[in-house]
Amino acid sequence: MCNNGVVPTESSRVRSTNETRDRILDVALDVLGDNPDAGMGDIASAADVVRRTVYGHFPSRLDLVRTLTERAVTEMTAVLAEVNASDAEADATWVEFIARVWPVAHRYRVLLALRRGEYGEAIHGLLGPVDELLADLVKRGQDRDVFAQHLPAGILSQLAYGVVFAIADSDLSNGTLGARAATITSLLMLGVPETRAIALVGGGSIRWR
Amino acid sequence: MCNNGVVPTESSRVRSTNETRDRILDVALDVLGDNPDAGMGDIASAADVVRRTVYGHFPSRLDLVRTLTERAVTEMTAVLAEVNASDAEADATWVEFIARVWPVAHRYRVLLALRRGEYGEAIHGLLGPVDELLADLVKRGQDRDVFAQHLPAGILSQLAYGVVFAIADSDLSNGTLGARAATITSLLMLGVPETRAIALVGGGSIRWR
DNA sequence: CTTCCGTTGCACACTGGTGTGCAATCTACG
DNA sequence: CGTAGATTGCACACCAGTGTGCAACGGAAG
What we know:
The structure is a homodimer. The relative contact order of chain A is 0.09. In chain A, helix 9 (175-189) packs antiparallel against helix 10 (194-201). By secondary structure, chain A is mainly α. Chain A has 10 helices and no strands. The A-B interface holds A 36-37, 113, 116-118, 148-152, 155-156, 159, 162-163, 166-167, 170-172, 180-181, 184-185, 188-191, 193-194, 206-209 and B 36-37, 113, 116-118, 148-152, 155-156, 159, 162-163, 166-167, 170-172, 180-181, 184-185, 188-191, 193-194, 206-209. The structure holds a DNA duplex.
């Protein structure tokens, strides 16, 4: 009524509220990344907040995990949709995708662990759109004989990005080393010949030592 | 003293005791396979036994899991050592290994899930010998340029049999279909060219549909 | 028959996590 | 200053799982 039609300036009280909420979410991702079984108490203290406050923002543990998952899905689908729009060959698209999605995947790697157990159902449901986009990409590659066809696109895509997550979760996760290894490995299991895979990710020896 | 030097006949009481114990172990594998978080109660009732009886055989949940793991390690190392003794090329050895280990892997697939969480430490320790034998095999392949070298043998071997377990855990786990898919996929990610991989697992079209 | 022993049924204490209720406190905003 | 809203601290009830103690039952062995 009185703010000239401008959206209210989110009076700094509200801002600080949202900051707490976001901090909780960020920290939760870290803590759960270390230990998927961490409790609300662990998350709270890691966020410099009392357990009760966490419940103020997220009525239940499931709400927290769900919010986290929704965040991940949003970021992933954004990258996937954008990359998928290119008319490059499927294998090149895959390389582009891994490169762009690597930081996100590494950040949300815990969701893969969380898929098994308690919240598996809920997470699986929310992750559906990502799975579909991924399967579409692999299927496109299979239809043009760029990817191998020894497995249906749905399963092959799951395995391929499962490996990517697994590498993101390993010791190699730091630096570009992990991303490179993940890209090559996933390309190989998608049936892309080794020479082509190396060419796609950029030259240089790939020997480990 | 009185049984002519023959091993005592395990008086049928002892036998029935061991039968219960074995049944509990077998059933535990199934139940935990369905839900790695299943409790002692679930296992007990699935084995047609009271919870208290389970504790009679295994003082703690960890003891049960450990026994299960020891069983798995015994079976796996037996297969691995035997297969590894052949002087065939590493990729052929890998195929032989997967074929022989497939039923075992499928049976003990839950251990992979159990490695994360509570008992991870204990299981990881017991599984050490298996990991080493596996890494040796992959390394042998890398040294002779049969396998790709974009990752160190230790990690590559983990990823490869991680995929095998993942497929064993999926819908394809029935019949020889899963075994075939697992073999081809793991060969691909080990850097074996598609044509060679198909030749190794035996002819026939590999197209999914 | 008596003894041994695996099994049972029930009780109990303990732990660790979840989710709620409520009064007290602090602080930005008006 | 006064108020509203976020945060705190502490209380509680609740649940599920673990592991233990113990008296009973039942069948096979001696």
